[in-house]
Amino acid sequence: MNWRVPTFEDLSAKLDAAEIESYNQNVADAGTPAAVLLEQTADMVRGYISANRAAVLSDLEHSLPPMLISPAVDYLVFDILKRLDIVPNEARTKARDAAQDLFEKIAEGKITPEPGKELEPGSSSVSAPSISVKPPIL
Asked: What's the predicted TM-score (pTM) here?
């Protein structure tokens, strides 16, 4: 699985046009570009991953496994909306809560993302994301 850095395209896919415009007028103008917010969020998620002794982080800075890109962006969208004084709707609140729950399960070792793999030169194959889930100890 190839880890990658979350992009503005990932973020803009979760925001509507009015929210993007509001972001551009308020947050971006305040000196915090989207790339910085995405990197900070990715680094926060990498912190959860690093707490899992079975997980292996990719060497690529600010990168995440594909299975964590969307939850990381869900987490960030919630925070951006709060910065814009927009009350996140129920779906966004649930998405952020689910992301937080996933990050905590990873840190606890209940879920371990696959380590990043380097593609062989000339190869374009990408494997599907996978996770390993440990059964609960009774």
From this structure: 0.81
